[in-house]
Write a structure and sequence with these properties.
single chain; 23% strand; five-stranded mixed sheet; Nucleotidyltransferase, domain 5; 8 helices; alpha/beta
Amino acid sequence: MVIGIDIGSTTTKVAAVNTEKDIIKVKTRAVDPITSATGAFGKLLVENHLSLGNIERINITGVGAAKIPGDLFGIRTNRIDEMTAIGTGGKHLAKKDRIIIANIGTGTAILEVNNGKITHLGGTGVGGGTIIGLAHEMLSLSDYDTIMCYAAKGDLKNIDLHIGDIAESNIGFLNREYTASNFGKIVETASKEDLAAGILNLTYQVIGMVSVFAAKSKNNDTIVVTGNGSKNPIGQRILNSISKMYQIHYEFPADAEYATAIGAAKS
């Protein structure tokens, strides 16, 4: 069995890959890299009744991987480039050889997978960290689930300027309902729920447009969304609205939040 550990800035994820069984997955909140890696690894062993003797090797990746010295628990431990892990995991989950990946974590990385070649195209600093940071300053909220509850009840018409606010008809292929300016029309009566909805819309529209431009530049119409931000239902809805505008297909595979850990294990 091969273990992949993705040591992120907010969560650490572990995936155990055995060719004869399904992939086993666990995650914990990130603390320091060593505590996070060993804690998540121990949780995997205990919850699934595994022993160290079951483990062939450990592959670690993510921002904290470089801070893990030597081997873990006497098991051969390899460092895997994070972009390689994201691309490998995304390809495995999508079951396709040619895709664009938008990996939404604290920020967002955009990659191209073209058969066996993985290319890091770039990305944006907008991601989950943006949501938490803006919500903290604007709403005095830091808990992600609470922010989502607020956003689900918000009305973007009190926050964003839409094309219909400034034009009598569509502009080019853009419908009057589409955003002309994020946070461009905040009314005095805007609620915390409205502001939370605006934060989510800003974040996922930026991610959506960056990934669309990447896909268009590579003549690809499939974007696979991975990372913690992939499972956000509000974000999925925003990305799907962009997909209709640009004839781009977004995919949200099962276990997408574990893509990097799975990719590390399979690298």
